[in-house]
């Protein structure tokens, strides 16, 4: 009898599912209860920022063309764009793309998006595939306020007339 209880406790530990953070609120949602008919998060598609990064090669994980990709997108930017259009979005901050060699917090994060309903129909008709979601996110991320403010702030630092050679050099005879 003791052997059986020990076995069930290890099985129960293995069957525990992680908590996911909801895209719209900061509360922890436990979406895994066997008795209640809730959304199955495991059926959501995963989008890593590397899929949309124009600095990456296809071998490093980029999944869309370079001319449509974005420079260093973050998981929160992808989440903001997808939540604004009306998709069910969950963000997992501590997940890391397996091909990503850099372990910085900037490159961490994974976004889970509900693409299809339980009956198999798309949640939104304009997003029938995962590629359509990635292309839409890559198209709208540069238009975010955080991106446009960063660009405007970096242009103000450059002043005309500065630069060029300065310092002491040898005099020509």
Feature tags:
alpha+beta, 5 strands
Q: Extract low-pLDDT stretches.
A: 4-15, 22-36
The portion of residues assigned to helices is 25-40%
**Count of individual helical segments:** 4
How would you classify the helix and strand content by structural class? Answer: alpha+beta
Based on DSSP secondary structure assignment, what is the total number of beta strands?
A: 5
Which whole number gives the mean pLDDT?
79
Question: In oligomeric terms, what are we looking at?
Answer: single chain
User: What best-fitting shape do the alpha-carbon axes yield?
Assistant: elongated
Order of helices and strands: HEEEHEEHH
Task: Name the beta content range.
Answer: 5-15%
What Rg is obtained from the alpha carbons, in whole angstroms? Answer: 23 Å
Give a quick account of the main beta sheet: strands, pairing sense, barrel closure.
Answer: 5 strands, antiparallel
- Sequence of strands across the biggest β-sheet: 2-1-4-5-3
First-last Cα distance: 100 Å
Write up what this structure looks like.
By secondary structure, the chain is an alpha+beta fold. The chain has 4 helices and 5 strands; from the N terminus they run H-E-E-E-H-E-E-H-H. It has a 5-stranded antiparallel beta sheet with strand order 2-1-4-5-3, with helices on one face. Residues 4-15 and 22-36 have low confidence and may be disordered.
């Amino acid at each position: 009898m003791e052997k059986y209880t020990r076995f069930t406790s290890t099985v129960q530990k293995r069957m525990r599912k992680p908590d996911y953070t909801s895209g719209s609120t900061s509360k922890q949602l436990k979406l895994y209860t066997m008795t209640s008919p809730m959304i199955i998060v495991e059926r959501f598609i995963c989008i890593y920022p590397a899929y949309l990064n124009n600095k990456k090669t296809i071998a490093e994980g980029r999944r869309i063309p370079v001319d449509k990709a974005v420079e260093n997108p973050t998981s929160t930017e992808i989440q903001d764009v997808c939540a604004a259009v009306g998709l069910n979005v969950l963000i997992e901050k501590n997940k890391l793309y397996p091909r990503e060699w850099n372990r910085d917090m900037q490159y961490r994060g994974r976004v889970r998006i509900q693409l299809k309903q339980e009956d198999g129909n798309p949640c939104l008709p304009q997003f029938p595939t995962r590629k359509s979601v990635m292309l839409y996110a890559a198209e709208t991320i540069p238009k975010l306020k955080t991106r446009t403010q960063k660009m405007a702030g970096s242009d103000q630092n450059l002043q005309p007339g500065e630069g060029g050679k300065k310092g002491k050099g040898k005099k020509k005879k």
